[in-house]
Specification:
The chain is α/β, with parallel strands linked by helices and about 1000 residues long. The chain has six domains: about 5-70; about 110-315, Tandem AAA-ATPase domain (Rossmann fold, 3-Layer(aba) Sandwich); about 330-340 and about 435-645, 3-Layer(aba) Sandwich (Rossmann fold), CATH 3.40.50; about 345-430, no CATH class; about 690-775, no CATH class; about 795-990, no CATH class. It has 35 helices and 30 strands. Strand 28 and strand 29 (about 850-855) form a beta hairpin.
């Protein structure tokens, strides 16, 4: 066989039968034996979802390979009532078509009521060559939902089979449930219990990240588990999601988290990062995240400019003020209550004792900055609680005099400080419960009718924040006694707990039947965790020393989906001591700035401009240590009045985007006129009125041939209940155990409102997972059903529909005319479908025996034809031989039409491809130039600089070569289309 002929035979998209199974060719690469290595994906039932490679010379020698020629398609007349078999087959084939445009085809139909701003990240990402994006929306806007929409779109396009999600250990269950409940994305949770389960169920030499296609794991688990880190290095995914991505940025040195994230960034085509606080204000730290998204973008991590990447769409960022008009019903305006209280005489005495401590630094009394910073550290603890202060004072004493096991000799100044610290301890001891005004005010608040909280109301739970663990433990014991709470009614959540403990507490807080009523949280719970399901009251027992912490804490209950008005309460202590009162006033100013950011600005980091909670705390402590007046502190940290706002993020936001993607005008796609605003979403054409109607009729059809599935249907509630047969049950074995059918019964509903109720109800269940499943195209049961329907039609066959003489049929089909539904597919070099069209090819008798052939878009033609169950099938015989004679001309016409689309695509993409490659070369040149400048300024020896240069140049070359190959493979389509005759429709003849 000639090379060109062989290449055409095995072109990507071709269907082949190898070893009695049907496959689709994804790649055909020359092999050393003179043949080809075929990379294929399974189509028939036994190999569906599997990939394999075959050597053509070996398979051809065994006569085990056959290319399916569409011109040899066998025809079989459909005799089923109402053409049921054909309608289901055509519908299933329609559902296989994967979109290749920039609009949303499925994500908007998830089990939620999406609003426009939630579609924007997916729309922005789909415009890019590859989907790499940081979703940096503010706390509470629903970044998980936005990521789920994009993931769903990529799965719809065949680019989301393998998914890895990394998140905080406290959020694993929450993230897992959200993606399953809303988007039917089944993530296997690999927490400490999950990892042990994996070890018990798969062979020791198997990679768990290949055993489970979709998994979720804590990056700290990976960091601590060398075995799983090794498995990670050998796996590849379609999509990787990194939640709270600021935790994996490089901060000064490359941490284990950052190194793992850098490794993962190169292990997938798609990378989605989520963070409301995406950087710490340092260019190099933020550059590390951007380089994970696109390693070609930044030449100098210390100094980069907008023109490098403003058109890459790497970042999207919105605040509540930006989208409030879209979601008024979903965002309740928070109510803020400030409770001011005067310090008790005992507290004033403790403050005075603190001010009288002669703090030392390196053995000497230090009345200035260093000693004052020590004082502020202890004052921070006193502002939290006497319990926290006692622990901090005792730690200071141990540091100065050492412990029994490791004693040290204090200096004279240190001995004076130790004596004063003991006096401070005595003063703190006098601040008992009765004289701890902040606690007494909290107790009064919780018991007051105005506040309205009742410990007996299971759907009105309370969140109390404090930054100090000692304060939380003290509050737990004291509130339990004073409010007469049982042990399991009040719990603490802090970062020192295991992943299982944290997840268990968060789940219990969201279950109405749980006895948990009060959750005491350290600031570990201010990142990402949803606490709003049964709680809308949040109390700050102590004021944060960071604006970013204000935002994170309040965002636990004031977030998208909160159904009640959030009530945020601050307990604000005031002292008569001028020095202490001034420091307390600085914290009040922080609270006021947070409210200003919430109402008018959006980003609280625009005040202090360090973009890091710890750095903000340091600035606050510095101001107090230096004796900065509250008014001066307020004046020093004013919001950025320029249009840039967050300087680093502004570099990555496209300034030319006048409107969000969901509101921009239509592109040049079919059906969009000049200046016409296209909908950002697409409703798929279907022969059935709903997914429920399709699934119901499919199950009935399967049972008509032979009893295959035990099921019942409730049309009023849009619900199907079935007992999974063995092949469907087998699929669930590879999915998370939490989603497997309960009691052997699978219940699916297409009713969003009912499913939403079930999600809420499920929080009352012991395992907190819905018993109902969402019925839509992404559910495994629907995908199984479609595979079953495809298997009902013999391989390489197409049904023939002999339509009755009705008015509707007469309008769509002329006498003697036949219409061939033909699918044409052209993938790119990465085997992703780029052009996938359906044609209605009309064949009429012509003069001289040659048929007249007209090619039309299939969807427009099918819309003219009411191909529903009301169309009677009279089973009139048809001349299949005459239809078979038309196969060759039909395929030739389809091939010609696909060739024209191929040319049009190449003409449109060639300039864009050339432009992208030119930009890559310019970026590469800039990185090489930057390297030369760095080396020129280095004082290292020449041989060291030469070695650095060689190593860095190799890396630059590798990065750009990989990216260039990716771009070319994505934009370059294969030369030969795969054509398939789906069905033939003709009219009855007398």
């Amino acid at each position: 066989m000639h090379d060109r002929e062989a290449q055409a035979r095995y072109a990507p998209g071709a269907r082949v039968v190898i070893r009695d199974c049907e496959w689709i060719v994804r790649r055909a690469d020359p092999s050393d034996d003179g043949g080809y290595v075929l990379t294929v994906d399974g189509l028939s039932e036994l190999v569906s979802g599997k990939s394999a490679q075959f050597l053509t010379r070996l398979e051809e020698a065994a006569d085990a390979i056959r290319v399916l020629d569409p011109a040899e398609t066998r025809f079989e007349q459909d005799l089923s009532p109402g053409f049921e078999k054909s309608r289901l087959f055509i519908e299933t084939q329609l559902r296989q078509i994967t979109p290749a445009d920039e609009r949303i085809h499925l994500g908007h139909r998830a089990a939620m009521d999406p609003v426009p701003y939630q579609l924007d990240p997916a729309l922005q990402a789909l415009k890019q060559t590859r989907q790499r994006i940081l979703i940096a929306d503010a706390v509470g806007l629903g970044k998980t939902l936005e990521a789920g929409i994009l993931m769903t779109e990529l799965m719809r396009r065949g680019r989301g089979k393998r998914i890895l999600v990394l998140t905080l250990k406290s959020m694993m269950t929450q993230f897992q449930k959200e993606l399953w409940n809303r988007f039917t994305i089944p993530l296997t949770r690999l927490d400490s219990a999950g990892l042990q389960r994996v070890r018990n169920h798969i062979p020791g030499n198997h990679n768990p990240f290949y055993y489970y296609d979709k998994s979720i794991i804590s990056i700290d688990t990976l960091k601590q588990d060398n075995e799983y880190r090794r498995h990670l290095e050998q796996a590849y995914w379609d999509i990787i999601v990194i939640d709270e991505a600021h935790n994996v940025a490089e901060r000064g040195s490359s941490s284990q988290r950052a190194r793992l994230a850098q490794l993962l960034a190169g292990r997938s085509d798609t990378l989605i990062m989520l963070s409301a606080t995406p950087h710490d204000g340092k260019a190099k730290s933020f550059a590390s995240l951007m380089n994970m998204l696109d390693p070609t973008a930044i030449s100098d991590p210390e100094d980069y400019a907008r023109e490098d990447f403003s058109d890459k769409g790497l970042v999207i960022r919105r605040f509540k003020k930006d989208i409030r008009d879209q979601v008024a019903q979903e965002f309740k305006e928070r109510v803020v209550k400030d409770i001011y209280l005067d310090a008790s005489p005992e507290e004033e005495a403790a403050y005075q004792a603190l001010l009288e401590v002669p703090f030392t630094y390196r053995g000497e009394h230090s009345p200035e900055r260093n000693g004052q910073l020590v004082r502020i550290g202890l004052q921070k603890a006193i502002f939290s609680s006497p319990a926290a202060a006692r622990v901090s004072v005792e730690q200071r004493i141990r540091k100065l005099q050492g412990s029994e096991a490791n004693p040290r000799q204090p200096s004279d100044d240190e001995r004076v400080e130790i004596q004063a610290l003991h006096s401070l301890l005595l003063a703190l001891g006098n601040v008992d419960v009765a004289h701890f005004r902040k606690y007494q005010e909290l107790l009064t608040l919780l018991k007051s009718s105005d506040f309205g909280w009742k410990k007996t109301n299971t759907e009105d739970r309370l969140v109390i924040f404090s930054e100090r663990i000692e304060t939380l433990h003290w509050l737990q014991g004291q509130l339990q006694a004073d409010l007469k709470l049982k042990n399991d009614a009040i719990r603490i959540l802090h970062g020192g707990m295991s992943d299982i403990e944290q997840q268990g507490i968060v789940e219990a807080f969201g279950k109405p039947e749980s006895p948990l009523r009060v959750l005491l949280c350290s600031d570990v719970a201010s990142e990402g965790i949803n606490l709003h399901y049964l709680s809308h009251r949040l109390v700050h027992f102590d004021l944060p020393w960071s604006l970013m912490v204000f935002q994170q804490r309040n965002g636990r209950v004031d977030r998208y989906g909160q159904e009640r008005t959030p009530i945020i309460t601050y307990l604000i202590n005031r002292s008569d001591n001028p020095r202490v009162r001034g420091d307390q006033r600085i914290l009040e100013i922080l609270k006021e700035k947070d409210e200003q950011a919430y109402k008018n600005i959006g980003d609280p980091a625009t005040f202090m401009k360090v973009h890091d909670a710890d750095a903000e705390v340091e600035l606050t402590m510095e101001a107090m240590a230096e004796g900065t007046a509250a008014e001066a502190f307020d004046a020093q940290y004013q919001p950025d009045t320029s249009n840039e706002g967050d300087d680093l993020l502004a570099l990555f936001l496209n300034p030319d985007a006048a409107a969000p993607p969901s509101q921009q005008e239509a592109g040049s796609g079919e059906g969009s006129g000049e200046g016409q605003k296209a909908s950002p979403t697409v409703e798929r054409f279907s022969l059935f009125e709903s997914d429920f109607a399709f699934a119901r009729q499919a199950l009935e059809a399967l049972n008509r041939e032979r009893k295959q599935v035990s099921f019942s249907a409730n049309p009023e509630r849009q619900t199907l209940t079935l007992t999974p047969p063995d092949d469907l049950d087998y699929r669930f074995r590879f999915l998370p155990p939490e989603i497997r059918p309960v009691d052997g019964s699978l219940v699916l509903t297409a009713d969003k409102a009912r499913f939403e109720q079930e999600i809420r109800r499920s929080r009352q269940d012991e395992n907190a997972w819905p018993k109902l499943h969402y019925l839509w195209p992404q559910h495994p049961a629907i995908q199984w059903l479609q595979d079953r329907l495809l298997a009902q039609v013999a391989r390489h066959s197409a049904p023939v529909l002999v339509l009755p003489e009705t008015d509707a049929v007469a309008r769509a089909l002329a006498p003697g005319e036949s219409v061939f539904l033909v699918s044409g597919l052209i993938p790119n070099r990465k085997a992703h479908p780029v052009i996938w069209e359906w044609f209605a090819i009309r064949c009429r008798p012509g003069q001289g025996g040659a048929p007249e052939i007209e090619v039309q878009p299939a969807e427009a033609w099918l819309r003219q034809l009411p191909l529903d169950s009301q169309l009677p099938n009279r089973a009139r015989p048809v001349d299949l031989g005459a239809l078979e004679a038309l196969r060759g001309p039909v395929i030739d016409a389809a091939r010609g039409e696909m060739h024209r689309r191929q040319q049009r695509y190449t003409e449109q993409t060639a300039p864009r491809l050339a432009e992208q490659l030119d930009k890559l070369q310019a970026l590469k040149g800039r990185q090489v130039q930057q390297l030369e400048m760095q080396l020129a300024g280095s004082q290292q020896a020449d041989h060291f600089k030469a070695a650095r240069k060689e190593e860095r140049l190799k890396r630059i070359e590798r990065v750009f070569a990989d990216y260039q190959a990716w771009v070319q493979d994505t934009h370059t389509i294969e030369p030969v289309p795969y054509l398939q005759i789906i069905a033939v429709l003709t009219r009855e003849t007398d």
